[in-house]
Design brief:
By secondary structure, this protein is α/β, with parallel strands linked by helices. It has a single domain, classed as 3-Layer(aba) Sandwich (Rossmann fold), CATH 3.40.50. Helices cover 45% and strands 15% of the residues. It has a seven-stranded parallel sheet with strand order 3-2-1-4-5-6-7, with helices on both faces. Helix 4 links the parallel strand 4 and strand 5. The mean pLDDT is 97. The structure holds nicotinamide-adenine-dinucleotide (NAD).
Length: 251
């Protein structure tokens, strides 16, 4: 029996990039996978790929920054599968951001980044909490970013939002621990996704020399950590942030 068979895992931002990779990896381990994305057609494509690889799936078009949308998403999952075991808060504003000095960032863009990258994980976790609490178990994995540790310049809103994700992770771990729910974060390094490739022309070699492991980071490298934090091997780990970056930053 696969490690995650019978478990239901939700991945936000699953339409492409890292989220799609997480959805496929969780399905590969036997989980029923819910692919959530603001782009419904890409969510459908990911769900179809999970199903054709042999695991049950559901696509939900939803906006993580909208409370009603998140509550509706959780209800759709419980209606379909009867339970929620894991939530991967991956959806984030990233590719569409223009990198510029902090004093030139548009306040509306700042607010939107916070709404999707910080409020989104809070709203999604709030929406799935009743189902997890009812079972006395659950795993929440929040996708932060190595940029928080490096203080990567020219996107103060993005880096701040990813730091806030770690703060949220710590609070949620303490508040949800008594219900048997583990909450952890993952901070990927610069990873080759369509978003990264469009942001940085030399993406394939960007930062590689700074790593202990001198190759580019791939979505599959991060997916392994997600599977671990969703699965039973991490049942006594909570409130942590796992840096997955080939040793570019050492803590
Ligand atoms: N790629 C990297 O190098 C890297 C590094 C560290 C952290 N991250 C983080 O990993 C996550 C995924 O990154 P990616 O490179 O795959 O990005 P991506 O832009 O390719 O994917 C993001 C997905 O989120 C969806 N999305 C955006 N806003 C949404 C909303 N309001 N509601 C629901 N879905 C929404 C998009 O439609 C898209 O499918 C992001 O949180 C990003 O900040 C990425």
């Amino acid at each position: 029996m696969s490690a995650l068979e019978g478990r239901v895992a939700i991945v936000t931002g699953a339409g492409r990039g890292l989220g799609r990779e997480f959805a496929l990896a969780l399905g590969h381990e036997g989980a029923s996978v819910v692919a959530v994305d603001i782009d419904g057609s890409t969510a459908e494509q990911t769900a179809a790929a999970v199903s054709s690889a042999g695991s049950p799936s559901l696509a939900v078009r939803a906006d993580v920054s909208d409370p009603a949308s998140m509550d509706g998403m959780a209800k759709a999952v419980v209606d379909r599968f009867g339970r929620i075991d894991a939530l991967v808060n991956n959806a984030g504003l990233y590719e569409t951001l223009t990198r510029r000095p902090f004093h030139e960032i548009d306040p509306d863009e700042w607010d939107r980044v916070m709404a999707v990258n910080v409020k989104g994980p809070w709203l999604a976790t709030r929406a799935v909490f009743p189902a997890m609490r009812a079972r006395g178990a659950g795993k929440v994995v929040n996708i932060s970013s190595g940029t928080f540790f490096s203080g990567s310049t020219l996107w103060a809103h993005y880096v701040s939002s990813k730091g806030a994700v770690i703060g949220l992770t710590r609070v949620l771990a303490r508040e949800m621990g008594e219900f048997g729910i583990c909450v952890n974060a993952i901070a990927p390094g610069f990873t080759l996704t369509d978003a990264s490739l469009s942001l940085v022309p030399e993406a394939a070699t960007y930062g590689v020399a700074r790593g202990a492991l001198t190759r580019a980071e791939l979505p599959a490298d991060v997916a392994g950590a997600v599977v671990f934090l969703v699965g039973p091997g991490s049942d006594f780990i909570t409130g942590q942030c796992l840096v997955v970056d080939g040793g570019r930053q050492l803590h």
